[in-house]
Specification:
There is one protein chain. By secondary structure, the protein is α/β, with parallel strands linked by helices. Helices cover 46% and strands 16% of the residues. The chain is built from 21 helices and 17 strands. Strands 1, 2, 5, 6, 9, 10, 11, 12, 16 and 17 form a 10-stranded mixed sheet that branches. Strands 13-15-14 form a 3-stranded antiparallel sheet. Strand 3 and strand 4 form a beta hairpin. Helix 11 packs antiparallel against helix 12 and helix 11 packs across helix 14. The model has no long low-confidence stretch (mean pLDDT 93).
Amino acid sequence: MLNKESFIKDFERNLFTSAGKDLTQADHRDLYYTLGNLVREYTGKPWADTNKLQEANKAKSVYYFSMEFLTGKFMQKYLEYLGIYEIAREYLADNDICIADVFDVEPDPGLGNGGLGRLAAAFLDSLSCLGMPGHGYGLRYEKGLFRQKIVNGYQVEEADNWLAEENVWEYQRPSEELEVRFGGRIDVSGFGDDLIFTHVDYDTVKAVPYDTPVIGYLNGNVNTLRLWSAVSIDDLDFGEYAKGNLDGAFHRINEAKSICQLLYPDDTYYEGKKLRLKQEYFLVSAGVQDIVRKFKKLELPIMDFHKYVQIHINDTHPVMAIPELMRILMDSYGLEWNEAWEITVKTCAFTNHTIMEEAMEKWDNNLYRDVIPRIWQITEEINNRFLFTLREEKKISAAESIDRLSIINHGTVRMVNLAIAGSHSINGVARLHSDILKNRELKHFYDIYPEKFNNKTNGIIHRYWLMTSNPELSDLIEELIGDRFKKDPLVLRELLKYSDDHEVLRKISSIKHINKQKLARYIYDTKGIKVNPYSIFDVQVKRIHEYKRQL
């Protein structure tokens, strides 16, 4: 671990390199980027070593696909996880600089909205802290969800331009970009069982990867969150530009760029639905192609793919990973349907987040067919074979039952049904939630595949919500039971022996009240509103999206 002397030497060297200033000349922004570059320096070798170790050991890796990763800010957390937070804080304090002011420079990454994204970020944190090979795939939204303001009692939305300045945490990997295809048609050639499906007249979008390190707590393990950015393969149309037709000149560029502009674009209208579908397929196609490319480097038989790869689908948005993996196994590797299907089911797992059927994602058949024609063909064949299995093997013949279980029905593709048919594991995110799925909302599937259903109760990153968010409480816990809880949360059970200790309970109440006073002071300083710290605080920390406004 670094000592203060070596940290200061590295910091001042980085400050000269990145800002051309010394400490007396630097502002908070200069200090933030210097700290960030220092974290990159300390993380680089462990990150490379982690990747080399996982590849050398041919370790089975989980790849977590999610439309959201609500990571929160990185700086303080990563300084703590590298064991240098106190050194950095003391050094800056010695020079009359408050480290919190430096942290304020960092924008909140616009990569998530709520619980689904928080769960995804927590899983990545836990995997890295446990030293397990687990990586994330998401989209690099340029404007996030939106920036919220309240004006005269009404919410006003503005673009959340969180990438306006350099993102010190990301590493662009242009040499690893991929292509994703939309539209066009599928030409079929060959005979009998030797059919060849060729995608023609399609539009191509480049998927450019940006990697963010996912640092483990004091263990030297660094996994990866890979975010994809959509870029047009076509440049400016000079002919249209010369005519003064700016819309035509930039059309292809803007069409590709729109895919990664916003999290959850409004899908009230057809074009919004189409954009959402393209977003989701762009994510899974780039991600699954990337996984297959990494697997190929291991020089292992493709039939063993599921022994080394686990694709985890976080809610319905990335469910197209199932037909996309089928597409690659059949069209690129020449596998027969049954071989590809066995590998796919053993590879894919699904987390369900909602018990409301109306919130379970569905796509119009025509839209699905037009945007991703090969995926439509494969999805249709999955449905045909699934219905055959239900009738012939499961002896289900009632029209109502077939209607509920069918993946494609009433002009829509039902993504939850596709996820269950194409996964070996389906879990809810709390015991009650999982029980409702099994006993009510998805009972028709549970009755057929009880072995697939299980529960994984949501956890939290205890280091984030104690060490970072509530250092006073963290210090008290360390005083009571030592510091082992920082690496092993199960040690927190030792606090139960203090449940009737009045002095400990008094200290906890005091810490809680001090935190309420801090929040009351912040509310007054920023809004001019006085809040009584002796009242009960009921706090909503979330932008109010369209689908939540009835609350």
